[in-house]
Amino acid sequence: MKKKLVIIGSGPSGLVCGISAAKNGVEPKDILILEREKELGGTLNQCIHNGFMENLTGTELASNLIKAAKGMGIECMTNACVLSLSKDKVLTVISPESGYLKIQAEAVILATGCREQSRGVLSIGGARPAGVLSAGAAQRYINLKGYMPGRKTVVVGSTEIAFIIARRIKIEGGTVICVCEPKGAPLADKKYIKECLTPFNIPFRTMHNVTKIYGKERIEAVEICQLDKKGKPIKKTKEKIECDSLVYSCGYTPDVDIAIEAGMVIKRDTKGPRTKRNNETTISGVFASGNAHIIHKSIDKIIKESAGVGINVAKFLQRQANELKEKENEDSAHNDSEDKE
Amino acid sequence: MSTKAYDVVIIGAGITGTMTAFQLAKYSIKTAVVEAGIDVASGSTRANSAIVHAGYDAKEGTLKALLNVKGCEMMSQITTQLGVHYKKCGSLVIGFNNRDLEELERLKTRGETNGVKGLRIIKRAELAKMEPNVSKDAKFALYAPSAGIVCPYDLAYAVAENSASNGTDYYFEYKVDKIERDGEYYVVCSEDKAIKAKYVINAAGCYADEIAKLINDDLPFEIIPRRGEYMLLDKCEGKTAKHTIFVTPNEKGKGILVSPTVDGNTIVGPNANIVDSKADTGVTEEGLDEIANGARRIVPQINLKAVITTFAGVRPTPTSGDFYIQESEKCKGFIHAAGIESPGLASAPAVSEYVIDILKKAGAKLNKKRKYIATRTKDGNCKLFYDMTEAERRKAIKEDPRYAIMVCRCETVTEGDVVNAIHRPISAHTVDMVKRRTRAGMGRCQGSHCREKVAEIIARELNIDISEVLKFSSNSKLLMGKTK
């Protein structure tokens, strides 16, 4: 299969890239958006809270963007997982409907989003019982499946999603004993504390970390400890708190598996692909957008960047087409002169 | 109800027990394996350095030395037969000063006496070429080209699945609490359950002493539980070391190592701390600091920010210092394979042959089976999608479209892999059992994206509600009921 533009990922970034590219001259039928999950929309689908763009919920924003993209005639394929991308922009894709596919693209946008950092970065002592999970996983269990990962929860970390999930657990009838953050200030904007914790009487403790997990099969308690200025636990402040779940949110990292395998240069600081000003990666014609490029502070910034990437890709494809045309003209002029001889 | 009778019952489904079952499955006798845990490799086999030691560590003339070298030689054939990842990456013991060099020379001589081939002392220049990241203070190293790496539970699954396919029965959550005599049989009981066999093999790892006590036998040594803690680094740091690198050992043992794993990660550890409980597999802050410092002695620039998980295992250290494999003097037909600590993984193939020799001497009649399945299951070695060639992937998807549904992107695990693991002879019916068989959830996000997908597939395939799905054991449900 051949496509002018293939976008990997149908979250807010992928959808906006597609819409923007179409608005800026790429034929919608030449654009293909690939989505690994069953539904388009990416992480937005699990965000039933508001605060997206003009105070929409995540799901509302997703449905608006999907409608817009489909309305323009952009082709979207769900259940389609990209296994690899080669330097000459051939994508290997698997899908239960279409099988094992090779797609030759002229331009590719990596809009694969991000992943939550694993628990490893926390290096908490103790065993690894059930009931310890990331905030994103907790959100999917509650919002998408309708199940509670726990009823008495301690949250560690202070990203937006840490605060939002704390509120969600409380609304669903669970108890949130506290949210703790090892640093001196929350990672997310302070407004989240006002919106998510204060009205629900959930305590927020900075300079506190979970230092031990109790329980062999299912988590039974955690040890919480205050940290000194160097981040070392102050032993006498150790406190054992009974709980049946620990939700962690230690930040995000760009999802760059495809980029690494394709041989792109990954930056050590952002952990995303190195890009030029137009978001083009070290592979010509492959662009990175949204959280797959760099972890953004807000959805607004993702959408702004993605709209720009759409324009840049449209320009790139136009330039490619022009160069091809010029080459053809040259060739035919050359051929003409040959004919005359 | 009559008690089911076997020729041989093996107590413990760790690497020693399963490897013995694998070797026995070649003969036409009836074998059962009983295991206290919910799965194969629930104890020491689950969490260790995953190293196939060459055999220069063990003291000359010990059983350890004999079986380590032989086991290491056998590893290649078994892993090829069953499709287990195994890599002969070689090991290096680095030395910093002349005292270390003397010790390395001593190790080399010992290794040669033990029969280890290809041992060589190398100097700084060659070492730096072989290991660009190794400490600049490392001046020499003992190089053992025959050392390797293997995933310990993958090997245990492979041999267990092969033996199950050949008719061996497995009983899980079967904690042996009583052993009685009934004529020529031993009746091996767990709560209200019982099976009987003419021969019993005690391969209970850390608990081998407790099993011995059940027949009023005393092992001539104590088993001390020693915990080793580990850190696992992301695949992007998988090239930190190309060989398994140790520092020159001292009185405390082989010490902390930095090694590649067969799956492309880097492993760091272990320490060796005596713990009160044989089940204490928790990690500690101090322990992780200790191994971090140990790793920095080997690779000063090691990127410990890339740690994706930490874990610990408990080893059954015998106070005698050697493996103890022999028939009980008091109870004929009861064979102890005890005190199998490191290098128990490397030695396992040879340990199992040694056990079978004792069985023969004890009178067991072993005739080769006519119909023997040489692979993991009757359908072959259950290759994972990740390991397939492009042609194999196309074929797998064509035959079963579930091989085109991605479950774990970090490790490229498809729904087809998960379903296959659930329906194999030893069914993976918990999330962790699926994880260890397929690697779903073992990558950089550590299951935060795929755990619920795996749980859903298990629920669907076993026809249970997702809230009933377990992480690993019966009290480890993932979820706590429905939302409001």
Characterise this structure:
The complex is a heterodimer of chains A (341) and B (484). Chain A contains 7 helices and 20 strands. With 341 residues, chain A is of the alpha/beta class. Chain A folds into 2 domains: 2-115 and 252-331, FAD/NAD(P)-binding domain; 118-247, FAD/NAD(P)-binding domain (3-Layer(bba) Sandwich), CATH 3.50.50. Chain A is elongated and about 90 Å long. The model of chain A has no long low-confidence stretch (mean pLDDT 93). In chain B, a hairpin with a 5-residue loop joins β15 (257-260) and β16. Among the domains of chain B are: 87-149 and 225-316, 2-Layer Sandwich (D-Amino Acid Oxidase, Chain A, domain 2), CATH 3.30.9; 385-468, Arc Repressor Mutant, subunit A (Orthogonal Bundle). Chain B starts with a strand and ends in a 22-residue tail after the last helix. The mean pLDDT of chain B is 95. In chain B, the strands form 5 sheets. In chain B, strands 1, 2, 9, 10, 11, 12, 19 and 20 form an 8-stranded mixed β-sheet that branches. In chain B, strands 13, 15, 16, 17 and 18 form a 5-stranded antiparallel β-sheet that branches. In chain B, strands 6-7-5-14 form a 4-stranded mixed β-sheet. In chain B, α1 (15-24) runs parallel beside α5 (152-165) and α10 crosses α12 (451-462). The chains are: A alpha/beta (341), B alpha+beta (484).
